[in-house]
Amino acid sequence: SIIEQAPSGRENLASVKKGVLFVGLWVFRARQILAPGGRLLNDGAVWGRGERIAGAGLWRDVEGQLRRFRHPVIREFPEALLAPGFLNAHCHLELSFLRGAIPPGLPFARWLETLAFARRGVSQAAAEQAAREAAAELAGGGCAFTAEISGLEYALPALSEKPLGMEARVYFEV
Question: Distance from the CA of 80 to the CA of which of 21, 104, 107, 111 falls in 20 to 30 A?
Fold first, then answer.
């Protein structure tokens, strides 16, 4: 088997996956695994083939089974909690260029008025760049899927690039 110690720090599984092709069996071992049903497994493992996860369990149970496979790739994350990718069910990445421009806590009507006024002066290129940065931030934080609510389409280029493998669906406001 090939056993690699993952570097310490803020490495997430999306960054492990990016640029790496797992052909045969792969196993990620971590201090803790958030398994299906919300079970927290101490000294756990997640395994699979290619881009598909096949299962999760305790390392002691998985380790004995590895002898059956030829050259499994094993990545160890001794200080990590491995969890499923998060889902953002409603976002507006296309409005990311407004970050910090609208004060929090406004009544809804005032918020809409401020939003409409703030949108006037932005260029499409600046709005698309802000959406790219926001999408990368979202994916880097562990989001595996997002539902973008769009009326301006500024987020489409960013989402089509699939930052860190994040999938998306776009719903157009009419």
Answer: 21
Note whether 22 and 49 are within 8 A (CB).
yes
d(CA 73, CA 78): 16
Sheet of strand 167-172: strand arrangement: 86-91, 143-150, 167-172
Of the candidates 12, 147, 165, the residue with the CA atom closest to the CA atom of residue 83: 12
CA angle 61, 64, 67 (to 5 degrees): 145
Please give the Cα distance from 74 to 66 (Å, whole number).
Answer: 10
Tokens 């002898």 locate to 67
Nearest alpha carbon to residue 33 among 62, 60, 57:
57
Assigned token pair, 63: 């380790």
Instruction: Give the residues across from 77 on adjacent strands.
Output: 30
Query: Is-contact 143 85, C-beta < 8 A?
Result: yes
Task: Report the predicted TM-score, pTM, of the whole model to 2 decimal places.
Answer: 0.64
Distance CA 143, CA 167 (A): 9
Kind of pairing, strands 86-91 and 143-150? parallel
